[in-house]
Amino acid sequence: xxxxxxxxxxxxxxxxxxxxxxxxxxxxxxxxxxxxxxxxxxxxxxxxxxxxxxxxxxxxxxxxxxxxxxxxxxxxxxxxxxxxxxxxxxxxxxxxxxxxxxxxxxxxxxxxxxxxxxxxxxxxxxxxxxxxxxxxxxxxxxxxxxxxxxxxxxxxxxxxxxxxxxxxxxxxxxxxxxxxx
Length: 181
Fold this sequence. Notes:
Blueprint: H1 12-48, H2 68-92, H3 100-119, H4 133-166, H5 174-180
Helix pairs in contact: 1-2, 1-4, 2-4, 3-4
């Protein structure tokens, strides 16, 4: 990959890193965390029976009610958390050891353990009413683990895209348009 020359008065390296984090975090977060949590909630609703239909979850969603606005909110939440996760990954990446598959695996296990422990709590309705409990716990530990597992590859792809965007002045309009979308 050839280095990108700096425009007059600017530093493209920072812009490329920032747009890489934004693109990778938003895309993987919206898909894995946002849509993944929607699918996890649907699966838990189906396995829990009709007794949970209409209850309000710990996060304020009505169980059994799938709406476009609720899914959109989950995708937005996933995108925001994805950017934070991408930033955290970039901070720890220099200290990761071994081949890429080992780095991805250790990040996935770490994210599953740390973030999963923040999501799973015994006093919430999500883990008292939804059945089977082991499935609820497994799904909400697996989501951050899956996010961390794919993030390295998504960051690598986003880095190539961000470098391509920075290589030409006419391509720079893509970043604001995609950010608004």
